[in-house]
Amino acid sequence: MKYRLMDLLACPICKEFPLELKVFAERELDRPPAQVKCELYCGYERKPVSELEKRPCEACGKKEISEGILLCQACARWYPIIEDIPRMLPDDLRNRNQDLGFLSRWRSEIPGTVLESGKPFSLRQA
Known about the structure:
alpha+beta; four-stranded antiparallel β-sheet; two-stranded antiparallel ribbon; 3 helices
């Protein structure tokens, strides 16, 4: 997933923007970065564009998030980033076993509130 997607992504359930991003693994890209600039929110710096002294677009464009999690502070939902792809499905379309496996695999990186009471699944409910 490209960091610049954070400028576009909102919670599909409650529409909260921006989402919080936790990166567990990223990789450097071999190709030159695209010349796309974020309009509202910089996912690479994790702050609104209006608060940036200098835009990190070149450095951002050279990185890709391969594993991570997106967190919605408004409704306590979480969405995994697995193999470069953010999995932002509604609750009823999510795979419980796959989501619990993700939480278990990355438990040392995931905030305790998500592990205990995140929606739609948490390790406490397992």
